Amino acid sequence: MTPASAGPVRLLLCDDHAVVRAGLRALLSSTDGIEVVGEAGSGEEALAVAERVRPDVVLMDLQLGDGMDGVTATRELTSDGGPRVLVLTMFDTDADIARAIEAGATGYLLKAERPEELFAAIRDAASGRSALSAPVADRLLARMRSPRPTLSGRELDILGQLARGLGNREIARTLFISEATVKTHLGRIYTKLGVETRAGAVAVAKERRLLP
């Protein structure tokens, strides 16, 4: 990665809305030290464009329509010493934040951020420093200060099967319980972890080291 002091930060925009990309490009052109070197409308396109233009930072949305989502694209981009990824999204749920950071994102910003904050975050990301929106930082601090959720032995068993990618029927067969019982336990797991999806439950469980 090229240090910010050696030249402008080379930035790749990834958002599935062309109007949003155009707006970001226009906004970023108004500040010194940042150069937009490419755009992508999908996760797959982001990987291909990043390979070609070698950006320092990728500004990544999480929801990218059909195909590869922003979390998967982030994981792929950062898996082998690639560019820094700075998430820019409308979503600030605990599960979304946990998944993005676990995937390797350097920072997490909300689209309601002031332009000056966005500029600073891009420069911080290029230098390897973390950048978080104030609401996101507050959520992370609140989670760290909150008591660790207590899951029963059976709930931990089911969570472990979720992490393996098993569906409800497979979990029921593996643990010798009914699918109805699996669904009941899943509801309790979601409530305790503050999530709404299977992926969110696994991401939060890994973040809080609830899985072996």
Task: Explain what this protein looks like in three dimensions.
This protein is elongated. Helix 4 links the parallel strand 4 (84-89) and strand 5 (107-110). It has helices spanning 18-28, 43-53, 70-78, 94-103, 115-126, 134-145, 153-163, 168-175, 179-193, 198-207; strands at 9-14, 34-40, 57-60, 84-89, 107-110, 131-132. It has two domains: 4-143, Response regulator (Rossmann fold), CATH 3.40.50; 153-207, Orthogonal Bundle (Arc Repressor Mutant, subunit A). The model is unreliable at 1-5 (pLDDT under 50). The chain has a six-stranded parallel sheet, sandwiched between helices. Helix 7 (153-163) packs across helix 9 (179-193). It has 212 residues and is an alpha/beta fold. The longest helix has 15 residues, at 179-193. It contains ten helices and six strands; from the N terminus they run E-H-E-H-E-H-E-H-E-H-E-H-H-H-H-H. Helix content is 51%, strand content 14%.
